[in-house]
Amino acid sequence: MRDELILAINLYCKLPFGKLHYRNPDIIHLSNLIGRTPGSVAFKLVNFASLDPSLQARGIKGASNTSKLDKQIWDEFFSNWDTLPYESEVLLAKFEKKPIEVINQISEAELPKEGKERVQLVKVRVNQSFFRSAILASYNSTCCVTGMQQPEFLVAGHIRPWSLDEKNRLNPRNGILMNALHDKAFEHGLITIDQDYRIRVSSVLMKQKKLTSVEDNFIKYQGREIQLPDRFLPDIEFLNYHNQERFKP
Fold it and tell me: Which of 22-31, 48-57, 78-87 has the lowest mean pLDDT?
């Protein structure tokens, strides 16, 4: 039962909130893997939604009959972002009866043939794929600044950098979805997001407001609220870090 719940949370993270229904092909696929009905898997995902603090903050309650084990597994997963996502992918590969490289579409041409280096690289790639899937699902594949929905241009970025916070590398509340231009500006502190989820533009760019490109791409967004995700709202603690340590006022 524990394995089934771990796989259900894995899928919960990867699916947009509006697609937690029994007709979803991904839910049907998981139900076949674990020997459950699509309806029971969908119901379990909705149960998890009732435990999601981001949804609670928006007044969305989900189902009200979660079990003690549901809560236990949820707390375990969401307290161990540094380990559980990867472990859930390993478990998924076991149920799929396929190598983890295959289910994560990692090309053999990009990997060493064997050894510790291969294991480490596969883990990094799997974790990056999980994080991107979770952020894309949370934001419905929509840039939170511009509303752009072309996936090739979208970057699942970190609020606290990957290199500085190992424990929260895969925490979706440390993620933000932007197009490549605004992601780069965010990374370099030229824009930030405040506690009210509003965009602030650095004085470095404000001084260039006479340039049409700067006006159109940055200054016009000053003070606007980002398009909020359905789940995994950016954690205020991480935003405060970015405001204070990365942003150039």
Answer: 48-57
| Helix/strand/coil for 239 | helix
Could you give the count of Cα atoms lying within 13 Å of 232 in the half-sphere of its Cβ?
30
Distance, in Å, from the CA atom of 18 to the CA atom of 180, rounded to the nearest integer, reads 26
pTM given for the model: 0.91
Phi, psi torsion values for 85, nearest 5 degrees: -55, -45
Give kind and range of the element (H or E) at residue 155.
Answer: strand 154-158
Region 113-119: mean pLDDT is 84
Helix (H) or strand (E) holding 116: helix 116-138
Q: Tell me, what's the pLDDT at 173?
A: 94
Within 8 A by CB and 6+ apart from 130, the residues are 10, 13, 14, 85, 86, 89, 170
pLDDT digits (tens, 9 = 90+) for 172-196: 999 999 999 999 999 999 999 999 9
From residue 43, give the alpha-carbon distance in Å to each of 20, 24, 63, 156, 174.
Answer: 8, 12, 8, 28, 27
The amino acid occupying position 11 is: L
Coil, strand or helix at 141: coil
Tokens 């404000």, residue located? 206
Cα dihedral sign, 76-78-81-86:
positive
Quote the radius of gyration of the chain (alpha carbons, Å): 19
C-beta atoms surrounding 249 within 10 Å? 11
Is 234 exposed, middle or buried, given 0-12, 13-18 or 19+ CB atoms closer than 10 A? buried
Distance of alpha carbon 183 from alpha carbon 217, whole angstroms: 12
Amino acid identity for residue 213 in this structure: S
